[in-house]
Amino acid sequence: MHPICKKLISVFEIALYQKKQVSFPLGDIHKDRLNTVVKTVYAEYYGTERFPTPQQKACAFFYLIIKDHPLTDGNKRLAVIWLEVFCFENDISLDSEDQTPLDALAVAVERTNLPLDDAIESISQFLLWD
């Protein structure tokens, strides 16, 4: 399992399951699906990263956790929490002033039919990177 996936699972268990925001623990299938999301974000094609910047990776995680539904419940909540944790760990500042609330952005991502690359560009426009 990818080390980032282990962090993602830890975030789920601490932030959502222990606080009773979801009512089930992660099963092996959920862990495998989260690992697939991580592998997609960190994929390289012919030595070139698909998402080369930390900001692109953050947006890709946000989108894929929501759209791929790796969990039975709590995908949007996990995407929001993971975005915040990922940005913190990578010294990326999210400027929250005059920003669309992340929960509202998560709902918009869930409803969109944009392909991944277009969605990442749109998400990035909403996130005010410092």
Give the count of helical stretches: 6
Quantity of strands, as a count: 4
Please name the fourth-level CATH homologous superfamily: Fic/DOC protein, Fido domain
Outline the biggest β-sheet.
Answer: 2 strands, antiparallel
Ends: how far apart? 32 Å
Mean pLDDT: 87
> Which class do the helix and strand fractions yield?
mainly alpha
Give me the Rg, rounded: 14 Å
Helix proportion range:
55-70%
The second-level CATH architecture is Up-down Bundle
Provide a brief overview of the structure:
By secondary structure, the chain is mostly helical.
Written account of the structure:
- This protein has 130 residues and is mostly helical.
- It has one domain (3-129): Fic/DOC protein, Fido domain (Four Helix Bundle (Hemerythrin (Met), subunit A), Up-down Bundle), CATH 1.20.120.1870.
- Helix content is 61%, strand content 6%.
- It has 6 helices and 4 strands; from the N terminus they run ααββααβααβ.
- A hairpin with a 2-residue loop joins strand 1 and strand 2 (48-49).
- The protein is globular and about 35 Å long.
